[in-house]
Structures are given as C-alpha cells and as structure tokens.
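Translate sequence into structure tokens.
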Amino acid sequence: MRRKPLHGITMGILAVLLVLFMAVGVAEEERTDASGQWKYVVEDGSAIITGWVKEAVGDLVIPNELDGYPVTSIGDNAFDFCESLHSVVIPDGVTSIDREAFSRCSALKSVIIPTSVTDIGFAAFSGCESLMEVIIPDGVKSIEEAAFSWCRKLSAVTIPDSVTDIGTDAFSYCHSLTGVTIPSNVVSIGDFAFYQCIRLANVLIPAGATSIGMGAFQECKSLTNVTIPDSVTYIGEDVFADCEKLILSVKEGGFAEQYAKDNSITYVFTE
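Result follows.
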C-alpha cells in the first residue's frame, strides 16, 4: 500500500488532546443563513461555509459574506459528492479551500479560485472528472496531497511562482494532462505527484528544486524529456518507472547523471 493509517496513539495522548480541545473551545454550531440556502459556522468572526441546505447543483456563486460575517474558508467536505454541480465561483477574501471541499463533483467543469487563496487542501478537487482547466492563483504556497488527483480531463494547469511544494498525489491520474510548468520556487515534488499522467510529454524541473519523491512520474508513458538541475540531491524509488520513451537531461558529473546510470535511463547532458 502507498499510505498507511496512523497507529499507536496512546490513550494518554488522546486524553491530553481532549483537554486541549476543551480548553480552546470549538466553533459555533452550524447555522443556516437568512436566505435559507447556505450552511456555515462562525470562527474568529468569519464564516466557514459547510455546505448548502440542499445539494448544490448547476452554477454556484459563493457569497463573500453571510449574515454580515465575511466568508474566509470553504470547509471540509462542504460540497463533496455534489454530482450535478457544473461550475463554481469562489469569492475574493476566501483564503483556504479545505479538505475534500469539492471532491467527487464529477460534473464540475470550471472553478474560479481568487487570488486571496493561500491553501488548497487535501483532495480538495479530487475526483472532479469533468474539470478541464485550473488556474491556481499567485499566493498559493502549497498544493496539498491529492488536491487534483483523478481529474481525468484536466489538460491545462497553471501553477504560480508562489508554490514551494507539490504534495503527494497532487495531480496523480490526471490522464489528459499534456504539459505542466513547475515554477521556479518549488523545492520538493511529492511522492506520486504526477503518477500515471499518461499524456504528459515534457517536464522541466526548476533550478532550486532539491527532491523528487517516490513514483512522482511513474507510468507517465508519453514522457520523452525531463530536465533535472544539479540542485536536485534526492530522487526517490521508481520516479520514472514505466517511462519507456524517457530521456533525461542532466548536468555532467552531477547527482542526476549518476541516478540515470544506476537506473539504466537514457540521458543527455545539458549545457
């Protein structure tokens, strides 16, 4: 298995966590706004949207405030499994799209993410099989684990320079993705980040990147060229497994050249 659940948390640790949880308090109970449409909770004077009173369908425009509270977050699982949702406009002021917020919205074709967003959470858009294009705005620092996994029609993605980490499985199983520009500030590419992106042809790893996680490009069967800078000092197991057309571009005498030799991957030298 690629991931294992956490084990071995003792009752003592759980007790401590419970005490801390009780000490800091919790967000208010879930509310319904004055229009009778939106469900939300209030935390630190801001609204976290938790869903619609009924299943969201069609074209969804999320408001920037609810009952006078500014909307700053799309909460965990807020719209997951809304299989008749076609498009989403997220308002300026939202800073986070939380865990599985829009996961498995299989008919979702477009989403507008504002520049205020800094965090795209775990599996936020995973399983949005109709999503074809995503523009990730400047300000987003991390694309978390499985954020866009199983978006099988996603063919165009723009990653801004603000991103420093591409999480585990971030774009895995994006079967229509043909090209991606990894921005200059990215330091690490997580395990299986682009696993089985079968139409991905060329990738340029930016200077400054230091690690490429296990299986990051495994089964990218159309991959013909990957440029690896000499800043990379770690390349995980099976990163390029089953990439039969691949030629690596590497610095002579560098870490990537030795990796290519050790793994019997064809390579050429960059200038």
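Note: The helical segments are 11-24, 255-262.
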